[in-house]
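Reviewers asked in the last cycle whether our approach scales beyond single polypeptides. To address this, we selected a multi-component target totalling 736 residues and predicted its structure end to end. The input consisted of the following lines:
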Amino acid sequence: MAYLDHAATTPMLAEAVEAYAAAAREVGNASSLHAPGRRARRKVEESRERIAAVLGARPSEVIFTGSGTEADNLAVKGIFWARRDTGRRRVVASAVEHHAVLDSVHWLAAHEGAEVTWLPVDGLGRVPVDAMREVLDEHGDEIAVATVMWANNEVGTLQHVSSFAGLAAGAGIPFHTDAVQAVGQVPVDFAASGVAALTVSGHKLGGPAGVGALLLGRDIACTPLLHGGGQERDVRSGTLDAPGIVAFAVAVEAAVKSQQEYAARVAALRDELVARVRAAAPDAIYNGDPDDRLPGNAHFSFPGCEGDALLLLLDAQDIACSTGSACSAGVAQPSHVLLAMGADDDRARSSLRFTLGHTSTLDDVEALAAALPGAVERARRAGRR
Amino acid sequence: MSGGVDSAVAAARAVEAGHDVTGVHLALARNPQTYRSGARGCCTLEDSRDARRAADVIGIPFYVWDMADRFHEDVVDDFVAEYAAGRTPNPCLRCNEKIKFAAVLDRAVALGFDAVVTGHHARLGPDGLLRRSVDLGKDQSYVLAVLRRDQLDRSIFPLGDSTKAQVRAEAAERGLAVADKPDSHDICFIADGDTRKFLADRLGETPGDIVDAQTGAVLGTHQGAYAYTVGQRRGLALQTPAPDGRPRYVLSITPVTNTVTVGPAAALDVSDVAGDRPVWTGGPEPAGPIECEVQLRAHGDAVPATVTLANGRLHAELHRPARGIAAGQAVVAYRPDPAGDVVLGSATISS
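The resulting structure, written as structure tokens, was:
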């Protein structure tokens, strides 16, 4: 099988699996006062320190969550709620956010009285820095929270996160970034980037699914989503998942430490994939920034084809990829990212995302190159009906 | 795979027959919440999950195909337009004709598949003849009779030799959780089952007269002729009883004058039926009149008849009168056969 969907989830690192299994054999609630509790607590805190160290954060800034989605929800809703009382009701978000942010913002607008300013993107999927500047000039004193992802999950385009964070900080506005796709792929440093809050997820970088973290500056007020035992600075209650957190930390550390070498290798493989796809389907449109993008991401539109049909045909040949966009009841929707980039509905529906990762090889690329021409031909025949 | 028991077992049997099978669930609702909920429909999120789970158990790939726009145009809009024209459409039949064995089949063939397998209760053997299911109570050959030869040639109905009870038992044996899921009835795109309200929402209220067939007297008013079906007795709300005290029935609907005509049951008797757009798949088209049986509505009884195919129309002369025959329904000709009555052809009833 050629697994070309690492952005959906990537295999767990062997050392993360072992760390998980070892920790899962131990009993102990990290909130308990007795010896087994202390042992669990120690593992969690060591993990927190490891993650903080490699991501440029202080340990106290690491809030463990159950997923990247939860961390995004916590940042967007939590910071909005905490600042709404001061009369700030505006949320600023890019038009190409992951649904975890996008739908949180929509929900705040629909149910919590939020005003929303959506930041546009250019044809490569990048938010112009000026767009943020203009919003801050116009609405600076109304804004509760601003959020722009570090790297786009569909087309892989990297954003000017530090510039946004700097502008927002200058206006006294907390800036959040969803870095789920970025950590381990490109250099990510919480303190150096100047962001107030940053989301990271376990299963995108070789850790387990079901664990993530929000890096949250000490001075950033954030109202909890979950109330209970008061864990995680009272911001995120719930018994800590010690084995998950331990494995998460192992994976974050490994991914960040090997990032440079990983990125060079995977980007070269990705460039090969792009060349092969272009050879197989000369009219394919390479979406996103051709250079300044995630090393493992290749995203194409195949004119005249439905992404859905291509996916089915490639799946039948044991090639796993994604349309990259969200499903609604199993039906692929035209990508909001492509639409925001100015693509029409047909192009947005005709796209396919190939993402490489730490287990990818040239064999995967060659399998795709072999299967693609036939798949494109058939998908084109099936057409957009 | 609708999410029901029939298509799940059909898929499992197709796999066992050696086919390379991919499960497809059709998303037919533009907004899934607006279609029937629970086990009664075939288009809800819950049904989609049931279908996916069945595909997992069978061990086949599974995809949802978005056919909502096509379904809306070819089935729902057609349904409303037919009622507006005073006819009584059968949307399941139209869905087979335009969606399952047309849009879906075409897409599948383009993608490299050879045939569409469904869980319809009908037989289609190597002789290419479409026959009634062994389970006459569940037989669906009537709603498949609209299929052309080229459509039948790419169709597989694995359930025709089994009764519904056998299909359910087999589903249970195979570990398919849908084994005891209730049958779907009613029309999948009418969420609350209230067809009259569904039509009124789309066609508006158009009050008109209810008149007596014999005297021409106005007996009452209606809020929209589309709400009535030939043969209907209930819901007429007539103030004046018939002189003989017998119940009155809807005899005809005339959209041009927005009139519903009522009269005694005996006036519902029909001996001649004409149909448009005939298809003939049970052999070569007959050059002259043939003796066979015709079925004039879903779940109706078959009536002996002489059928003639001429000038792009089908004509059936019934050997005993049938009642409550509505334009827009299908007339399906069957040749009685101990090995399962054979579908000869069908047409859409025009008069």
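The two ends of chain A are 30 Å apart (CA to CA). We regard this as preliminary and will revisit it once experimental data from Aim 1 are available.
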